[in-house]
Design a protein that fits this description.
340 residues, mainly alpha, Helix Hairpins
Length: 340
């Protein structure tokens, strides 16, 4: 086999790109690499498009693990291809260990495969000293990427479990914004809601940082409505907004705590740009809120509450967040319609 230096240049470019994407995604703690971003966005867009044609939450449920596995395979394939091209750039780069005959293309692919996975069978070996050094670098590189990948996957799976737990904790407070307010109002003092939010704030801040560190978390979909974080956060945001707006006699301590909690929710919403979630062109529709008249501590009319909600810019972002996860905005209020 004759040497082709151009293949070595192409190989170095592919190796560099694969390493950059792996390191940026797993170690930056704030963003994903370009390959990870595009791969996640394209696969999710395809599955979400199918889901919108024919609702299938179980299909979306496997999207997160599927994208994560696909990304791992993509990194490995790029490393394999890159090092294969590099070891094809010279005729003596890989030789038979016994006969010292130059290896064929298939044999070079085999050699690179067991080198980057550190299996080291030894039936083929690098030729000159330069290639021996590069073989060591390839082995270290492969071990490094595989270790990063496994560690990253375990962290993402753990964070996905925390995401579902957070959604369930919020839904335990109430199935809808109305129920969250009604159950935790304490006659208008909102002490119960303030206390619960105080315990949730730190967890929510930690979850926001994990969504920044592991952008693939946004693609981990739950098929059970009570475990869906976008719906849960949107419900909670509506409840806090309504309580702060419509209950002027709320004690200052409770009001301050709920305002802090709303700022915490806003910090989480800031991570959504990593999942290509942008505000919806139109504000979400607010359903009939007449039943809020039943709450004696609410002193704003249903019409005023609805108008205030629609005036907030973050409503469009929350709507997009819910819909980007494969759900409908109406799901936030569906139980209200059943119970009133």
């Amino acid at each position: 086999m004759s040497g082709q230096p151009l293949l070595g240049i192409i190989g170095v470019v592919i190796i560099t790109l694969a390493n950059y994407d792996a390191v940026r995604t797993t170690l930056s703690a704030s963003n994903a690499g370009p390959i990870t971003k595009q791969l996640g966005r394209m696969v999710w867009a395809l599955l979400l498009g199918i889901h919108r044609l024919r609702s299938n939450h179980n299909m979306l449920k496997i999207a997160g693990p599927g994208i994560t596995l696909l990304l791992l395979l993509c990194w490995i394939a790029m490393e394999w291809l890159g090092w294969f091209l590099l070891f094809c750039s010279a005729s003596d780069a890989v030789v038979n260990s016994t006969t010292s005959v130059s290896a064929t293309l298939v044999e070079r692919a085999y050699f690179v495969g067991y080198t980057i996975t550190t299996l080291g069978y030894g039936d083929f070996a690098p030729g000159a000293a330069l290639w021996q050094l590069l073989a060591i670098v390839a082995a270290i590189n492969g071990f490094f990427v595989l270790t990063l990948s496994v560690t990253y996957i375990l962290s993402v799976v753990s964070a996905a479990s925390e995401t579902r737990q957070m959604a369930q904790a919020i839904n335990a407070m109430g199935e809808t914004p109305y129920r969250i307010i009604e159950v935790n109002a304490d006659g208008g003092s909102f002490e119960s809601l303030a206390q619960q939010m105080q315990s949730l704030n730190l967890t929510l801040l930690g979850l926001a940082q994990k969504h920044l560190a592991y952008p693939l978390l946004h693609y981990y979909h739950s098929a059970e409505e009570d475990s869906v974080l976008p719906l849960a956060l949107a419900k909670l945001d509506q409840a806090l907004t309504i309580a702060l707006f419509a209950c002027p006699n709320m004690p200052s301590t409770s009001r301050t705590q709920l305002q802090v909690s709303q700022k915490t929710l806003t910090k989480f919403q800031d991570t959504l740009k990593n999942a290509f979630v942008y505000p919806s062109p139109q504000a979400p529709e607010i359903p009939d809120l007449e039943h809020y008249k039943q709450l004696p501590f609410c002193h704003e009319s249903p019409t005023a509450i609805a108008s205030y909600l629609q005036s907030l810019d973050r409503q469009r972002l929350l709507k997009a967040y819910v819909e980007k996860d494969g759900w409908e905005w109406s799901c936030l209020w569906s139980h209200d319609k059943k119970n009133n």
